[in-house]
Amino acid sequence: MAFDLVRRTTLAVAAACLAVIAPVLSTVPTSGLGIAPAAADDCPDIEVVFARGTSEAPGLGLPGGSFVDALRSKVGGRSVGSYAVAYPADYDFLAAAAGANDASAHIQYMMGACPNTKLVLGGYSQGAAVIDVIAAVPFPAIGFNNPLPPNTPDFVAALVAFGNPSAKLGLPLTSSPVWGGRSIDLCNAGDPVCTSGEDVEAHRAYAGGPANAAANFVAGLV
To answer: How far is the first Cα of the chain from the last one, in angstroms, to the nearest whole number?
Structure first.
């Protein structure tokens, strides 16, 4: 399947958008739920690859952990593994390329080692920008050098974004002709990261209802 030729969100654009709202991200909670990733040789029925937001502790982060917990309760006892994307998630937003490279490497590994596992890709805030990069057309973004192969859509069942900076640019994941039908891109009203609003608290509020809504969406696809 051809990759998306419409989405033009590069890491540089996402970084520029994130830099504008850095004061918002400075107050994102730093604790994470830290669910351990499943071993690849276990080949879970479903594997969530999730990138945490800026300043969250290593792990899935609060929205990511809440989403995975909710998904596990909605898939009829099927196994749900998780992989926390390894990247700094700090204020050097260009370093998000490291997250894109790491996520892509794990996705490709799972495609080879566990071809029957349904993959779910997700991210929150800067982590959503990581997913934007790997889901877009594979031309060079700053520091991104591990694009996904063309057959990736055969393995990826769903994509999830919370507080996605590319939505502020008019390019949510749902606009993609490749990924749009299997994507949910959630943006709370007034969230300054994904809208022109100024409600800082809205950007912190994805671990409850939005995480559950995303789990409902993904459960319908896996």
So the answer is: 20
